[in-house]
Amino acid sequence: MQENSLSGRFGWYGIAIFTAIMVAFFTMEAALAHGVADDDKQFLVGAAGANIPAFLYLGAKHMVTGYDHLLFIAGVIFFLYRFHDIAVFVSLFSLGHSITLIVGVLSGVGIDARIVDAIIGLSVIWKAFDNLSGFQTVFGVRPNLKLTVFGFGLFHGLGLAAKLQDLELSKDGLFTNLLSFNVGVELGQILALAIILVFMNAARLSQRFVQNATAINFMIMAAGFVLVFYQLTLLALGME
Questions:
Q1: What's the CA gap between 97 and 189, in Å, rounded?
Q2: Which of 16, 76, 85, 136 has the CB geometry, 3.0–4.6 Å to 80, for a possible disulfide?
Q3: How far is residue 13's CA from residue 209's CA, in Å, rounded to a whole number?
Q4: Residues 105, 175 contacting (CB under 8 angstroms)
């Protein structure tokens, strides 16, 4: 009876988490994928010279509040049980994210953030679909997980780089600040990952984990479709 109660509560936890994500998506400007809050924009535009502590904080804040990142990472580690496997996949994602974040800002190459954010939404859909064994069922093959996680990591970093490019950051201390920001992103990711793992490990105690996992991955996929639809709508209407 206690086990059934736990599994039932976990099912409701999943629904509650998904609902909270959707509420944040539609009501909080700061919750937009790779968005930068107004007060942070003002600081970034006015910042000159190396400011390591502030950029560490902003990087960590970006990851902890970046629900598109968190949805993707949660999908990646959903069925990973060994610490080594988790470390490998999260490191591949971090490497891809770091490369395009730094190179994208320093190169100054113009990128439409709405298109990149739509691709990030697709990454969420892809991983949830993969967790549901969709590729094996529909196509009879499973993509290379390490390659795709690294590839989507590149797009996640590119999305933030596109936002930062629009702010015209000062060149004075830019490289140091970008490195600090990136380190902050990784620290935020470690914190977020630790919290996700606590819930994941608790969920795995339930005998109904597989059934609940199916429902939650469908909800993660639905959130990805919302992200894609939103960004493509902005693009079609010419809105920022």
A1: 11
A2: 85
A3: 13
A4: no
pLDDT tens track for 193-221? 888 888 888 878 877 787 788 888 998 89
Query: Taking CA 221 as the corner, what is the angle to CA 99 and CA 164, rounded to the nearest 5 degrees?
Result: 30
Rounded (5°) CA angle 227-119-79: 80
pLDDT in tens, 95-149: 998 899 888 888 877 678 888 889 989 999 999 999 999 999 999 888 899 999 9
Q: Which helix (H) or strand (E) holds 104?
A: helix 83-107
Sequence-ordered list of residues with C-beta below 8 angstroms from that of 117, at least 6 positions apart, any chain: 33, 34, 68, 159, 227, 231
Hey, which bits of 120-210 come out as E strands?
A: none
Q: What's the CA gap between 128 and 124, in Å, rounded? A: 6
**Domain boundaries in the chain?**
2-237
Calpha distance 217→96 (Å, rounded): 24
Integer Cα distance of 142 and 136 in angstroms: 6
Contact in structure between 78 and 217 (CB atoms under 8 Å): yes
Compute the distance between CA of residue 55 and CA of residue 47 in angstroms, rounded to an integer: 10
Q: How far apart are CA 213 and CA 205, in angstroms?
A: 12
Query: Which amino acid appears at position 53 of this protein?
Result: P
Task: Assess contact for 239 and 112: CB atoms under 8 A.
Answer: no
Question: Which of the 8 DSSP states describes residue 169?
Answer: -
Residue at 68: amino acid letter: D
Nearest to 183 by CA among 50, 34, 63: 63
Tens-digit pLDDT profile for residues 169-186:
778 888 888 888 888 888
